[in-house]
Specification:
The protein is of the alpha+beta class and 892 residues long. The protein is built from 34 helices and 31 strands.
């Protein structure tokens, strides 16, 4: 204002100034010219000269004042313009979206905008004059918004990529530092949190898609339409062609494949580009490692935003080995849907960080109760009820924590009601080893578990009669004992054996026998009036009856006998069946279920020994018999392991009129047991125990191996016969056993003869027949032992070409005394010869029997007349060892 007023005032000061200027200009000149003039001499000066000087001074002074005013005004305008420019720049810099800090050559801060202070939570009052860049870094470090050293900050911020600082609130700040030519610097600070999150999301999405595509079993590739060069190939594609992904990307078909394959591929590509709808499917052949492979292909033309073809998506599958299967794909589905939707179980991919579903196939819609598109982005809490969601989330978290596979079953509500699903959870880790995705598969196992439940029922029930089986019966016994312990209650255990079932099976067939068992089971249940009835074995039933014992048990046994006495009418046939019963009583005859059942079985065994159709009550003296059998069973088991068993060989010869003429052609091997305490145990005693206990399988293997090893050492290649038990056919691989023993011992298969009884075919005719045929294929000989003692021998002879038939000793011993026996033996010989089978008679003990058999044309004989069963050393001469033994004695 002073300046303004000063400009607008009177001209007096200007005149004064002009006068002063004029005086100073003129006076000195006169002084110098004329010397010093005193004031008194001024009166002598020419007035005109004075006025001229005065006017000139005024003009000069006015001119000088004008120049001074102009300079002053220009300077003020320049200052105002600079202030406006500085205000504009400051305003612009303060409104930038990034922080800016500028320093001079001495690293003093000359500018810091508001955005910088806002980013790091600073105020203008925190700054001071002369503050340096290092000072402000220290201030930030003190405030907790800088986690690196000064040197590291400047080094990384000056790099091309800059420095990214992570703040405690999750923000990411990108800092870039530039040094100016004058020695100063400029640093920019940009909040890149949003861009970084978007970048991570894009990278995550890309990685997710690549992970899914790499785990797709079909071959997937993509190529540019312009040049036909590949831009992507998944793991299945690499495996099919034998190329790595790096080898494929950037090349075209001509550079990768042979001419024929390249022609097929390029032709298919062109057809896809011309196909309506942008999709093309076909099947064509390619060459892979010089082999022709047929593939089923679908090609999809992918367009850009301008609806112009951009690249070609290729999906194909090797269908060489299953060309008969239809590989027609739905034209309206994208590739990812196509692959995932063909998985036969529900598939869901979940994001670990927030539990949101990223992918679900069509099968998953059943458990999601909505379309898969609607489920994307939702969580388990959004889809399922609170109880189910809580369970699912807990199991998801457990799988993520384990970082492995978790398999379990749990119910899920569906539109079809509550269903049981088998769920497998697998965690997919990212590059840092942290859980990223959770892949879940859900398989509806409701029907399977129902089937397993039925199977569990079958495990405790007989499949034919649907009665409880032995295991269920023992459980029921245990429960009855627990209920009766500490009381006066009694109950009886009945073992009922069905008489005549074997005859029914042999005469009428097993189908009718099965129907008979069903009818018998029904009558037993009706008679037991709610008591427990179980089927313990093929023709044996068990019952539990409470009440006063033994009266209640004996009364029920009698009622059962009366109930089964009437004929059974099955398939138009009248069939009769009786029962034999054994009974034990709790608590007198045993403290536990196994003892009670065993004692009832012992009573049944005694009843069958007495007479069929009787009832026997367990007596304590039966324990001794049972103990003896058990001890003998244990001793027999040890005997097999301890080598107490030995072999005896009984000669078999050609049937001639005399023993001398009956040439020995082979031997039958028989097992013998020398007990360390009892001495020699009869085969009639220990063989049945081995059959009942199953030891016959282990014993039979030992006998077969020792017989083959012994026979392979004979100098003379004589035949050797071994008996096989039906149990060996029912348990284990008898064909594999015989084959391995022949290879192990080196015995020629044609020298081994396997003797079987018809029991092998009675138990399971089809299976037994198949095993016999496989044995025959090994080259061994098969003979029918004890022919004539069974019921269906003729049908067996018709079904299988036996090499030999052995006539049962019961018919041979009656020759000469019973005309019927002679007629039967003669008929068997004629039958065998008619079927081109050899006939051998066992049990030959007299010359008359031998002469009869020779006369009737019997091929071979065996019995005490030719020789008893003895160790093979007793028959050394017959097997060719006589001379060797004599030589050994002479040279010994």
């Amino acid at each position: 204002m002073a300046e303004k007023n000063w400009q607008e005032g009177s001209m007096l000061p200007i005149a004064v100034q002009a006068l002063v200027c004029l005086t100073s200009a003129v006076a000195p000149s006169r002084a110098y010219a004329n010397g010093f003039v005193s004031l008194n001499q001024l009166g002598d000066v020419d007035p005109i000269l004075v006025w001229e000087a005065l006017i000139g001074g005024v003009v000069v002074c006015a001119f000088l004042v004008a120049i001074a005013l102009w300079i002053h005004s220009a300077q003020r305008r320049s200052n105002r313009l600079q202030l406006r420019r500085n205000a504009f720049i400051s305003s612009a810099m303060n409104n930038l979206n990034q922080g800016v800090v500028m320093t001079d050559a001495q690293q003093r801060i000359i500018f810091c905008n508001d955005r910088y202070l806002e980013i790091y939570g600073l105020a203008r009052s925190d700054l001071w004059t002369g503050m340096t860049g290092y000072d402000i870094l220290g201030l930030r470090r003190k405030r907790g918004v800088l986690g690196v050293s000064d040197d590291e900050f400047y080094e990384k911020a000056a790099s091309p990529n800059g420095l990214v600082t992570e703040l405690s609130d999750g923000r990411a700040i990108l800092v870039k530092y530039f040094v100016l030519p004058n020695g100063g610097s400029v640093a920019t600070h940009l909040d890149v949190s949003e861009q970084r999150a978007l970048s991570q999301q894009l990278a995550s999405t890309k990685q997710f898609l690549e992970t899914v595509l790499d785990n797709v079993p079909a071959c997937v590739a993509a190529k540019n339409i312009e040049d036909g060069r590949y831009i992507f190939a998944n793991r299945a594609y690499e495996h099919f062609w034998g190329f790595s992904r790096d080898q494929v990307v950037g090349k075209n078909a001509r550079e990768l494949f042979g001419p024929k394959s390249a022609d097929s591929i390029e032709a298919t590509d062109r057809a896809a580009l011309l196909a309506p709808g942008g999709q093309y499917r076909n099947e064509f052949e390619v060459e892979v490692d010089a082999a022709r492979r047929k593939v089923a292909s679908i090609r999809i033309v992918v367009r850009n935003e301008s609806n112009k073809p951009q690249f070609l998506l290729i999906v194909f599958e090797d269908i060489t080995d299953r060309q008969s299967l239809s590989m027609e794909l739905e034209s309206t589905k994208k590739f990812l849907e196509l692959v995932v939707d063909n998985i036969p179980v529900a598939l869901i991919v979940e994001q670990v960080k927030d539990g949101r579903y990223l992918l679900a196939n069509r099968s998953a819609e059943t458990i999601l109760n909505r379309r898969r598109e609607e489920a994307t982005g939702l969580t388990a809490s959004d889809i399922f009820n609170a109880k189910e969601a809580k369970l699912i989330i807990a199991r998801d978290e457990a799988a993520i924590k384990k970082r492995g596979m978790i398999t379990e079953e749990h119910p899920i509500s569906t539109k079809d009601g509550l269903r049981l699903f088998l769920t497998r959870r697998a965690t997919v880790l990212n590059d840092s080893g942290e859980p990223q995705y959770l892949i879940k598969t859900h398989e509806d196992v409701t029907n399977r578990r129902q089937t397993e439940s039925r199977m569990a029922h079958m495990a405790y029930h007989d499949g034919l009669t649907d009665l409880p089986n032995r295991a269920a019966f023992l459980q029921a016994l245990t429960q009855m004992i627990e209920a009766c312990e500490g009381t006066d209650e009694e109950f009886a255990v009945l073992c009922v054996d069905l008489d005549g079932l074997k005859e029914v099976n042999d005469v009428f067939g097993h189908a009718l026998g099965d129907k008979l068992l069903i009818e018998v089971a029904q009558r037993l249940q009706d008679t037991a009036r709610g008591g427990l009835v179980a089927r313990l074995s093929g023709d044996e039933f068990g019952l539990i009856i409470d009440g006063k014992q033994p009266d209640a048990g004996l009364a029920l046994a009698q009622q059962l006998d009366e109930a089964l006495a009437p004929e059974f009418h099955i398939d138009g046939r009248a069939v009769r069946a009786g029962i034999t019963t054994g009974m034990s009583v709790f608590p007198h005859n045993g403290p536990d279920g196994a003892s009670l059942l065993a004692n009832a079985g012992a009573a049944l065994f005694r009843a069958k020994q007495k007479s069929r159709g009787t009832i026997s009550l367990y007596q304590p003296e039966m324990d001794q018999q049972i103990r003896d059998r058990r001890v003998l069973h244990q001793d027999l088991s040890k005997a097999i392991k301890n080598g107490e068993l030995s072999l005896a060989f009984q000669p078999q010869g050609i049937a001639r009129n005399s023993v001398a003429e009956s040439e020995i052609i082979g031997f039958e091997a028989l097992a013998r047991w020398q007990h360390p305490v009892r001495g020699q145990v009869s085969p009639a005693e220990f063989i049945p125990i081995a059959e009942e206990s199953g030891l016959i399988v282990e014993m039979g293997e030992w006998i077969l191996r020792e017989v083959c090893r012994e026979a392979a050492s004979w100098p003379k290649p004589m035949q050797v016969a071994v008996n096989l038990s039906p149990a060996q056919f029912m348990h284990g691989d008898v064909v594999g056993l015989v084959h391995s023993i022949l290879i192990e011992t080196g015995l020629a298969p044609g020298r081994l003869e396997l003797e079987i009884t018809e029991g092998v075919l009675i138990e399971d005719f089809d299976r037994g027949l198949a095993l016999l045929r496989r044995l025959k294929a090994l080259g061994v000989r098969i003979s029918m032992d004890d022919f004539g003692s069974g019921y269906s021998s003729l049908s067996y002879l018709q079904a299988f070409p036996f090499d030999k038939i052995k006539i049962d000793r019961a018919f041979i011993m009656n020759l000469g005394r019973n005309p019927q026996s002679a007629a039967i033996v003669r008929a068997v010989i004629d039958l065998g010869h008619g079927l081109e089978m050899s006939i051998i008679a066992e049990g030959v003990e007299t010359l008359d029997q031998l002469a009869f058999l020779a006369k009737e044309g019997c091929d071979g004989v065996q019995g005490y007349l030719l020789g008893k069963p003895l160790p093979i050393g007793k028959y050394a001469d017959l097997v060719g060892r006589g001379e060797a033994m004599e030589l050994a004695l002479k040279t010994g």
